[in-house]
Amino acid sequence: MHSREAKLTQITNWAKDNPAISVVLLTSSLANPDAIKDYFQLP
């Protein structure tokens, strides 16, 4: 699995497993697959 998809799956599963979470808003460079990679996405 591509690392972007893996991270999105991890975030989604975390939110689903926490009843206190009702909304997830993604605002990082992961939100746009065409964004320039930031410090956290570089190898």
TrEMBL record:
Top-level taxon in the UniProt lineage: Bacteria
Q: What is this protein called?
A: Uncharacterized protein
UniProt xrefs under InterPro entries: Aminoglycoside_adenylylTfrase (IPR007530), NT_sf (IPR043519)
Organism annotation = Emticicia agri
One Pfam family linked to the record: Adenyl_transf
